Structure formats: C-alpha cells, structure tokens
C-alpha cells in the first residue's frame, strides 16, 4: 500500500521520492552482512516484505523469488555467525488487502496468521527470534487519525481502536500458531511497541492524571492485554472512551470490547517485548485542551496535550529512557526486553555530533537501567543506513552511514557516529572523549569501508559497563 501511495500521489511524499530502490539491500545483502561482521554485531534485525512473499496478500500463492531472497540473506547471516531477528510486519500491507478494509477488516486476523505460518514453515528452522508487528500505535494513529500514512482513512474516533483491536488479535494468532505448530523449532515470539516517557508539566492533580492517560493510551493499550495477569485494556482507557462516547450521544462505547475468550487468547501471547524509544514528552491537562481536538477522536478521548521542553537538546535527553525501562520493569513484571529501535534524525553530512551525543547518552541511560535490574537482552540502533523515511522521504536521515540516494550504486559513507558506535561495540565502554574524523577515517583502507545497508542492527549486551547479561 506504500508503493500504491507513492505512485498515485507522489506529491504526498515530502521530497517526491519513493522506496523502490532506497539503499538497495535486495541486491547488496552480502555487503550488508560484511558490514555487520566488521562492526562486530551478533544479531541483525530486519523485516519481511509481505507482498514480496505473498504478492496477492493471501497464502494461496507464495512467490518463490521472495522465499529465495530471504533464504539467501538468512543463510549468509548464519554463515558469518550473525543471528537473524525478524519482524514479520512493518506496515507494508499488500494493496489488495488494504482495499478490502485493511486492519478494519476482521478477516485480516486469519490472513495475517496464514502469512506468519508461511514464514515459520520456510525460515523457522534457522530463525529463532520473531516479532509479529511493528509499532501498532503509530501504524493505526497515522493510518486513521492523522491519515498521513496509508491507508489514509480519516476515522479518528473509531478507526484507531478497531485497527489496534485487529492487530492485537492478529499478533495473538501468530503467537498461538507458533506454539501449536512450530514450538519444536525452539524460537520465541514478541511484539514491537513504541513508547516515549511522559513528565507532568506541573505538580497538579490534572497533570498527574494526564500522565497516567498518556501511558494508558500509548503503551498500555497493547502492553496490558499481553503482559498483565488480568489481560484486557487498561481500565482507565476503557472508562475514558466509554464516558466520552456516552457524553457524545453514542449508545455504546466506540471502543469495541474483547470478550472473555479473546482476553484469554491475547493474554500472555509474547515471550519478549521489542521496545522502540526515541524521545520524551511534557504532558499536561488544562483548559487549553478543551476544543483542541476533533470530536470524536482518540486525542479528545485521551484529553491531554504534550510538548518538548525547549531546554532539552534533542540529542541529550537520556533520563526518560531510563525512566521508561524501569517503569516497564515495575509495571509488567520485568519482561525480557530487546530495544529494537533507538535513534536520531538529521540532515546530510558526516560530522553528526548530535547523533554521537544521542547514542552516548541513551546507552548510558540503558546501562543505568540494567544496573537497576531491568531485563534488557539487546539493543538496536536505528539505523545503520539512511533510508526512505515514510512520508518524509529522504529529508530525514537516521543512518550511521550516509547514503547517496542519487548515486546508482548507492554509495555509503560512514558518519562520525558509525566510528563511535563501532568502538562502543568493540570495547563495551562509552568513551566520551573519542572524537574520530569521519573524512580522514573514510579515506583509509580499513574494513569499515565495506559499506552495507540494513534497516537496523543489534548489539547483544553481553558485558557492558560491568553488567553481565545472560542470553
């Protein structure tokens, strides 16, 4: 459905580009693996393209070329001692399934399960870490509330909740298929959830309540049904939507409830949490929020506003990351966590000092969280290479390596952050004084010149800052 968008409305992308080739990992996967090996990472996180495997969406036709590509990539990783860590779905729904209602269609729960089964059957003998769905909150929010991502259906008062409901059920179906049919493969199943950290704007009761709703409407909507003993949505999430719906004249809540069987089906359906984190927010609730949002809508239901503290340099606010990790530990019985995205966007250029500072600060916060007993088993930088950043095209660059998108060969050049991160991986220490010159380094005949592309990569933290983790 993203391919469909960029062809039918190319002006919707900030720089009128598309993701047809992007960093071209399809042809350069062996270089991807070379770079992973040279950097010293032990796990590679990547996603499977649903339409590449099932061009018509359903499992009645499997594309052998898609299977062959991922087999080649997985085998190349394993041959180099790198463990594949796969995300099954990262927003690229086949267009025909989108036209059949997408995540508003209950049939997609079964269809997604069939897709997952195809992947387990073809790759599960070698892949032992599976994440079902990437960032359902963002996927549903931008698909149905802001409508800036496909399917661009503006249903802010119902579409967001229905999308999230089907995704939870689809995730659980993929989990149970694995448990019932493929557990002998010895793998684990998780889900990728995104979350920031929320600070109350003041010491008022209203702002304290707003922070509770910030967590309930973001992380809690997905974490509570899966990772709590009671299951189901957070009660304050249920109550606020029901109360708002009643006040708006609806006979029933716009949040369709799960029945008891569905609650049981979703509860406990993850072996780990894959967590994406980028930043923190100041959260408030006061008179200015009244009338701020469309009615009915998710934002009006939640009833809070957010902003960034202008005193926070965007590259330096790591404490929120620590707070979030400890919150998850204390709220959800310390689940196994893989941090699957954490990163910083910038424009072009190799001297990305902001990104260097970002990773140093956030890895320091992560170390503190590990010391506090948070069960973090791995960390991912987002991302090694500049890539097609959805509606922003190539205007925002998250990569440790700059990609020349206009070069047919997609030349990759390491930024300063690449050298700094490589040294952190090598030493398992944050050296705050290390200040490599990316221009000088790039001109040397060193292994780091073996450029590669990938979506994100993972450093398993075996020993970092004196903390030992078991894998």
UniProtKB/TrEMBL annotation:
A Gene Ontology annotation in the biological process aspect, one of them, is: carbohydrate metabolic process
| Keywords from the named record | Glycosidase, Hydrolase
The answer, when asked if Lipid biosynthesis is one of the entry's keywords, is no
PROSITE patterns listed in its UniProt record: GLYCOSYL_HYDROL_F1_1 (PS00572)
Q: Which family does it belong to?
A: Belongs to the glycosyl hydrolase 1 family.
EC number(s) reported in the record: 3.2.1.21
Q: Where is the active site?
A: 341 (nucleophile)
The entry's protein name is beta-glucosidase
Question: What molecular function terms (GO) are annotated for this protein?
Answer: beta-glucosidase activity
Q: Which domain of life is it from?
A: Eukaryota
The reply on keyword Hydrolase is: yes
InterPro entries found in the cross-reference section: Glyco_hydro_1, Glyco_hydro_1_AS
């Amino acid at each position: 459905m993203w391919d469909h968008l960029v062809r039918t409305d190319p002006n919707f992308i900030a720089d009128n580009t598309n993701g047809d080739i992007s960093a071209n990992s399809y042809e350069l996967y062996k270089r991807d693996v070379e770079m992973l090996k040279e950097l010293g990472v032990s796990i590679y996180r990547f996603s499977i393209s649903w339409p590449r495997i099932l061009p018509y969406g359903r499992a009645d036709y499997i594309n052998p070329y898609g299977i062959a590509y991922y087999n080649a990539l997985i085998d190349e990783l394993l041959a180099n001692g790198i463990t594949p860590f796969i995300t099954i779905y990262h927003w690229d729904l086949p267009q025909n399934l989108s036209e059949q209602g997408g995540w508003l269609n209950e049939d997609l729960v079964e269809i997604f399960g069939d897709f997952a089964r195809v992947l387990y059957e073809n790759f599960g003998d070698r892949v032992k870490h599976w994440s079902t769905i990437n960032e359902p909150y963002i996927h549903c929010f931008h698909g149905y509330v802001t409508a800036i991502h496909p399917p661009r259906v503006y249903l802010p008062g119902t579409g967001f909740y229905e999308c999230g409901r089907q995704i939870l059920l689809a995730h659980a179906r993929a989990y149970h298929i694995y448990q019932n049919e493929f557990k002998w493969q010895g793998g684990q199943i998780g889900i990728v959830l995104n979350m920031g950290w929320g600070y109350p704007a003041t010491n008022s009761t209203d702002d304290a309540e707003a922070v509770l709703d910030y967590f309930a409407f973001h992380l809690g909507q997905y974490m509570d049904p899966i990772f709590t003993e009671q299951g189901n949505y957070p009660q304050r999430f249920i109550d606020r939507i029901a109360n708002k719906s009643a006040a708006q004249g609806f006979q029933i809540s716009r949040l369709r409830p799960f029945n008891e069987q569905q609650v049981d089906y979703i509860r406990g359906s993850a072996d780990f949490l894959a967590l994406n984190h980028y930043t923190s927010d100041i959260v408030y609730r006061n008179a200015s929020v009244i009338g701020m949002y469309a009615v009915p809508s998710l934002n009006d239901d939640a009833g809070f506003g957010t902003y960034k503290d202008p005193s926070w340099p965007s590259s330096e606010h790591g404490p929120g990351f620590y707070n979030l990790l400890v919150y998850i530990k204390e709220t959800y019985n310390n689940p196994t966590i893989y941090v699957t995205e954490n990163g910083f966007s910038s424009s072009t250029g190799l001297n990305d000092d902001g990104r260097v500072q970002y990773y140093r600060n956030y890895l320091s916060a992560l170390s503190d969280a590990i010391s506090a007993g948070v069960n973090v088993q791995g960390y991912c930088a987002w991302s090694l290479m500049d890539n097609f950043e959805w509606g922003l095209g190539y205007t925002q660059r998250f990569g440790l390596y700059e990609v020349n998108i206009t070069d047919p060969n997609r030349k990759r050049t390491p930024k300063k952050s690449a050298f700094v991160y490589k040294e952190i991986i090598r030493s398992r220490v944050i050296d705050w004084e290390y200040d490599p010159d990316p221009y000088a380094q790039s001109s040397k005949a060193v292994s780091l010149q073996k450029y590669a592309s990938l979506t994100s990569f993972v450093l398993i933290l075996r020993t970092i800052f004196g903390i030992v983790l078991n894998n």
